[in-house]
């Protein structure tokens, strides 16, 4: 499966504990998802199940429409063999009846086809609407580890390019398929009824066409699967480059990126060419078979007309029927073209939708116990926790830690020590490989996601703002908050002053990813959002690293109020942040090597004292 986007998640710079994603090898394959057997058919059935009545109606309309269309050659046969001779005898009735019947069939065919298109179009759009919604909802429900290994560009490809392939099939291909099938049934029956031997020869000519179709399907399936993956690789590269345009410019990567993009673009071109070549082989082969069959039947039929064993009208009707059958063969090729493309896309979508969250919802969720004090803090316990990422070794060996309710704990250590992993386990972005993380004695795995998110909030290093106003971005912390609540949170965190200077104040549109305001201001908005959520546990994962010195000091002044009574875990590289903590944990290789009050550790001769001394010297 495959990716146009939201910013692709990083796995090294912003997340030092997570092993770098392996992107070696063929870019077509490294993000592929397995599709369970039968998943594609199950998905298609589930999409069509709510529309059974309308699907049946479209089939009925097409049956009637084809009956009206296929009556034409019978009327021609009757006109040649009966109506014209009667006309010569001055009996005009049969010929007039044929003309009226032909006109009525044409009108009925047009009206029925119009009705078919109206119903089918609504069915098609409802299917696509449902499918896009499923992809979007499912992608949001999947766990963080999925998004850290599956590029956002491929997700976008699933919901755009692949859904578009299915749209082409539904809009154009299915009608062609049903038309060809109905034509085959109607015409075979008519030919056999008109003349058994002539009909048998005509039906026998379908055998090489069937073999040709089977061969085309087999060859095209492989080509279209490669094409679907190729376009995703192009989209992924484009999205990745645009998301990283600043480092691209800073490190003059334009030429190198262009060369890499051209390689992927060329592969996409080649797979498109292979698809067209397969289509050309099928069309040419089908036309050769059709023309040989028609020529042979016409010659044999003419010989029988000459010796009086076959009526001329029957031969004319048979030729018309054969042309009506063989003419759609090219359109059948277009259907197969759309089908193979859609089948490859639907398989990739089914593979995506078959993914299950690695952090599942509990089957019988529990609720957190009532708070025992006026403050919102809750006790956090890491009980025998072990953890390893999917692509790397064990990050946390057996890990035990208790954080009393209301305590602010700073976690420091070198890159890769396990600090961010600790924070992600507490936020339940991941589940431990072994052991438990408890919140007031309740395993996080037993809490429903809404209950957990009300209790634990995380502010990350990169504050992400959505398009919309400042107020709307702060209100994400509590959607039912009033404007007064929003402003009160902003004032508490020190963001009110800069927000007031914006062109429209709290109603200023921050635009894509908050690009209208600075990185430090975005972080202040993120702090206000977290404060508005009023969590029991607040995790700050290097959340002040993007602030300048005045901004950091403003946030630190506010933190003494914001964190009061809450359980707080502060992941910090800047040791200035540690000054607000009640307790400091120093981590190395997934283990706590020092634990104590900041003043005690500074006065000691351990690892934290060395870090603190180096930090003081850097300030000097």
Structure, described:
There is one protein chain. The chain has 620 residues and is α/β, with parallel strands linked by helices. It folds into 2 domains: 39-353, Up-down Bundle (ABC transporter transmembrane region fold), CATH 1.20.1560.10; 380-619, Rossmann fold. It has 19 helices and 10 strands. The strands form 2 sheets. It has a 6-stranded mixed beta sheet with strand order 6-7-8-3-9-10, sandwiched between helices. Strands 2-1-4-5 form a 4-stranded antiparallel beta sheet, covered by helices on one side. α2 packs parallel to α5 and α7 packs antiparallel against α9. The longest helix has 53 residues, at 254-306. It is elongated, with a radius of gyration of 35 Å. It starts with 38 loop residues before the first helix and ends with a helix. Residues 1-30 have low confidence and may be disordered.
CATH fold type of the largest domain: ABC transporter transmembrane region fold
Decide which structural class fits the backbone: alpha/beta
Number of strands: 10
What portion of residues belong to β-strands?
A: 5-15%
Q: Name the CATH superfamily classification of the largest domain.
A: ABC transporter type 1, transmembrane domain
How are helices and strands ordered from N to C?
HHHHHHHHHHEEEHEEHEHHHHEHEEEHH
Number of domains: 2
Helix content: 55-70%
CATH level-1 class of the largest domain:
Mainly Alpha
**Major β-sheet annotation:** 6 strands, mixed
Mean pLDDT: 79
Number of helical segments? 19
Rg, nearest Å: 35 Å
CATH architecture of the largest domain: Up-down Bundle
Can you tell me the residue ranges where pLDDT is under 50 for at least 5 consecutive residues?
1-30
Strand order of the largest sheet: 6-7-8-3-9-10
- The span between the termini is 53 Å
Shape: elongated
Family: Belongs to the ABC transporter superfamily. Lipid exporter (TC 3.A.1.106) family.
Transmembrane segments: 95-117, 200-217, 284-303
Biased composition (Low complexity): 1-11
GO molecular function: ABC-type oligopeptide transporter activity; ATP binding; ATP hydrolysis activity
